[in-house]
């Protein structure tokens, strides 16, 4: 039995409705993740504020997608890995690079690889990033602010990845083209 039966926006608290209206006007639809977390206006507000803060960070939009996709993949969030596969590609990242991140492989772009590796170590090691990984990150042109801005992205994705796991968010039709699942990765690994 599903934990959350409905991802409709008409059965959310009134406090969430204006936030959902602005999301729908911006994107043309309300993603299932947003509809699911809208049951808690506090969670929805936190998500929107963190998203805005990350968008305004020192990282460029394509770099933000590297952080979001890497974190989602490490947290095995099928919903967010699928969504950020598409948004990463739409931000100008080559599909080959997106696939490598989805497969947890090294990417050829040195700056992206430094960011991917740094993000991975932030997630896996709870911020205890080894000196050599931090040095690689700095040598790729990132600074102290960038390192801390990665934390905003990791926090944002940890919040949504965990929410997706809890509410078992179904993937929206708009993102099906780049669907990713942990099962497909397990089958590939055993083949």
**What is the H-and-E element order?**
HHHHHHHHHH
- Global shape: globular
CATH superfamily of the domain at 61-164: AhpD-like
If you consult CATH, what is the topology of the domain at 61-164?
AhpD-like
List how many beta strands DSSP finds: 0
- Report the structural category: mainly alpha
The CATH class of the domain at 61-164, by name, is Mainly Alpha
Question: In the CATH hierarchy, what is the architecture of the domain at 61-164 at level 2?
Answer: Up-down Bundle
Task: Provide the residue-averaged pLDDT.
Answer: 93
Helical fraction equals 55-70%
| Quaternary organisation | single chain
Biggest sheet details: none
- Tell me the strand percentage band: under 5%
Uncertain regions spanning at least 5 consecutive residues: 186-191
Count of individual helical segments: 10
Distance between the termini: 31 Å
Keywords:
AhpD-like; 191 residues; globular; 66% helix; 0% strand; disordered C terminus; mainly alpha
What does it look like?
It is built from ten helices and no strands. With 191 residues, the protein is mainly alpha-helical. Helix 4 packs across helix 9, helix 7 runs antiparallel to helix 8 and helix 7 crosses helix 9. The longest helix has 24 residues.
Topology:
Blueprint: H1 14-27, H2 32-37, H3 41-55, H4 61-74, H5 78-90, H6 95-102, H7 110-124, H8 131-139, H9 144-167, H10 182-190
Helix pairs in contact: 3-9, 4-5, 4-7, 4-9, 5-6, 7-8, 7-9
Please outline what is shown here.
The protein has 191 residues and is mainly α. The chain is built from ten helices and no strands.
């Amino acid at each position: 039995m599903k934990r959350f039966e409905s991802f409709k926006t008409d059965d959310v608290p009134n406090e969430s409705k204006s936030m959902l209206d602005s999301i729908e006007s911006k994107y043309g639809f309300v993603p299932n993740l947003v509809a699911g977390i809208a049951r808690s206006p506090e969670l929805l507000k936190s998500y929107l504020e963190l998203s805005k803060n990350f968008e305004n960070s020192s990282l460029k939009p394509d770099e933000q997608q590297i952080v979001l996709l890497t974190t989602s993949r490490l947290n095995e969030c099928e919903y967010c890995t699928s969504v950020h596969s598409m948004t990463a590609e739409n931000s100008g990242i080559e599909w080959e690079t997106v696939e490598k991140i989805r497969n947890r492989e090294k990417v050829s772009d040195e700056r992206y690889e430094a960011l991917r590796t740094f993000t991975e170590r932030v997630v896996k090691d709870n911020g205890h990033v080894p000196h050599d990984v931090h040095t690689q990150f700095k040598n790729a042109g990132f600074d102290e602010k960038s390192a801390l801005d990665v934390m905003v992205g990791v926090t944002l994705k940890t919040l949504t990845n965990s929410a997706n796991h809890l509410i078992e968010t179904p993937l929206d039709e708009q993102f099906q083209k780049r669907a990713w699942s942990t099962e497909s990765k397990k089958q590939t690994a055993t083949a």
